[in-house]
Amino acid sequence: MNILVTGGAGFIGSHTVDLLLQKGHTVRILDGLMPPVHLPGKIPEYVPRGVEFIHGDVRERAAWERALPGMDAVIHLAAYQDYLTDFGKFFHVNTVGTALMYEIIVEKKLPIQKIIFASSQAAYGEGKYICARDGDQYPAQRSLEQLLQREWEPLCPVCGNVICPVFTDESRVTPHNQYAISKYTQELVALNLGRRYNIPSVGMRYSIVQGPRQSFRNAYSGVLRIFTTRLLADHTPVCYEDGMQFRDYVSVHDVARANMLALEDARADYEVFNVGGGRPITVKAYAELIAQTMGKDITPRIPGEFRFGDTRHIISDISKLSALGWTPQVPFEDIIAEYVAWARDQADARDYYADAERKMKSKGVLRETPGTNPNFQLPMTNFATT
Fold first, then answer.
1. Nearest to 311 by CA among 153, 137, 89
2. What predicted TM-score, i.e. pTM, was given to this entire model?
């Protein structure tokens, strides 16, 4: 097949391109090479030089009109992800860019046989919990007032008691932040337009994807990148909240395999699937495991800061995709070892945390709590609600 991979020079995209080539497919890449993930306009060395590359932005009609003709399928991975407050950009890239792809396919009657698109675990917000008294619950986003008091755990919306996180399946979404909302609206566009115009489409709700080629400069790219670069510089990793948030990490190699399955299996058509590691771990324990892997006797620092809009716990139920024959094969001990080995060989593997921290604090994303800073003051009401 001739397959277009948007975002094919990125982290998940490049590994998917590699697997497609191994399977004998012909690949075309469409990528804007946007900062902070990329150095502007520079194609990474790991992108195979024999692959056709189109430098273009998915928000622009001309880019799609160059990239789509002659293709049999699209794996649409180009996305904007961050914690910053440039809300419109999330929807222009993730939602409008996807709508533009379908618009051009329909308008020009292009014979696209399938579209796989990247969604996110973030669409679940806090996900599913169990209350000992009131059963299944899907709590709302934690309030700023609660977080400022360091009361980290979500409460039952019925009785107000602390509730227990459980594996979250695909049946219900409650997106809370700008990235999550943009990815869910992307799902609505893709699945509904796909059905209307008979273009089989599949959404992949990735958990926290980890592995080599993950950008050092992207503040969104997760604790493995942040903690590894901190430890390489002999700096202490910083855990937000109390470090006891449960997370679900999955190898980029397993994600590429999931994309391939969705492409090849007609049972996946018009469905969304969780793509996760199947094994929860706290952020603090993950940081300690990274330090252990690197041979560093450094304990994570937990100052009580938090990112406003973060999810407390989220763990994906992967049984739906597993029923099609996919299971994660790379345990996170191996994910960490592979990433650390790769990072040690990269010339630009410096600690970007301080820069990201300053930027997030200036935008009101990363916030302090009483006791974090001796000069702490409660934020003004109009600032707290932005």
1. 153
2. 0.93
